[in-house]
Amino acid sequence: MCHVNLLDTLRERGFVEQTTNEEAICELLKGGITGYIGFDPTASSLHVGSLVPIMALAQMQKHGHRPIALVGGGTALVGDPSGKTEMRKMLTLDEVNKNAEGIKAQLSRFVSFEEGRALLVNNAEWLTELRYIPFLRDIGRHFSVNRMLAAESCKLRLEKGLSFIEFNYSVLQAYDFLHLFQTQGCQLQMGGSDQWGNIVSGIELIRRMGEGEAFGITFPLITTSSGEKMGKTAKGAVWLDAERTSPYEYYQYWVNTDDRDVRRFMALFTFLPMEEIAGLERLVGAELNAAKSVLAFEATRLVHGGQAAAQAYHESTVNFGAPTVPEHVMPSSLLHAVVGGEPQKGGGTVPAESGDTQGKADSFLSASELAEGIPAFKLFHQVGLVGSKGEARRLIEQGGAYANGIRIEGFDTVIGDAEAQEGEIVLRAGKKRYHRIGVK
Description:
Strand order of the largest sheet: 1-6-5-2-3-4
Number of domains: 3
CATH class of the largest domain: Alpha Beta
Strand content: 5-15%
CATH superfamily of the largest domain: HUPs
Distance between the termini: 25 Å
Number of strands: 15
Largest sheet: 6 strands, mixed
Number of helices: 20
Mean pLDDT: 82
């Protein structure tokens, strides 16, 4: 697996606002590391505003590292004051646990938790078992009240009132980082820009406890070019749960993206290669609308699956007309991504009729073969995309080999069941040669 360039990828795609000791992080990322992001289970579904941390976890795994998704079942019982002008509604333990289960299912669409490649943990497992006096003596003594009051999350609330239970939130989050450092070797925490103080507190706690060195990365607050918060519409939040926001409504949210945001949102919210996204800055009019269809399809496919995305695309074309996607403007992989079909003459695309990927596969691999994994150079030769294994090595070394739109960095990168999306793997050699592998 590739262990390099995660930070470069995150920065290039617009994920990075601040880092602690960037030089040390770059060195750390040369090997396989474990990093985590926390998710607040105050609702049974995540929403579009949660996609930046979700995609960051997915990028982490794609670069060969082990992500941990922490569901804050314990901290949700306290409430995070960050970015809030008043105290959150207190939830019961049953409500938190129910919400956590819904979030787990949604995260599984982006990150594979099989065979320990990623972990999904609930901090209620250790926080609800803490004994108060030992916690104060062993952990609380490392925190300065003056420093905690100076944090943005506290300063914003002091005028209206900050409860004692909320004041403890940053201590508990810092303890989460310490716990994962001690039990899972987790050295990196990522989160939104409003979590900077909490992340630094965790890093300091690990250092003060004599455990070692840890690091942090924060993401910028993502707003639209019109200044609106991501994921908000006239109807309210755009949820990842199909019962709250249907796949068609979800697709429409993305296809109506502001022209100025298309390239930025493609970089953040899809896995399409950056060299293909880069050309979007020059598009205008109908060609830019075609790019929005690509963004909407890819974003919907990640959350709801290929069949639902194809159906949403089809419904949208019936209601609003099919976008023209000129091949000279859009790279063929983007054309391929819109509907899983081939470009028509004169532009446009042939929509997928049912999303049945197995019926369109060029060849098949068994689940057992994928579970064992196949080196990329062997697989490209095996399916006939190249004439020899040597040619396959050269193709990969020159950056011309892709699996599901993601460039393969090393010739011995193993292609396995983790790469099977919706029961298929799409290999690409160069710009125009594809081979679709079905799983049987």
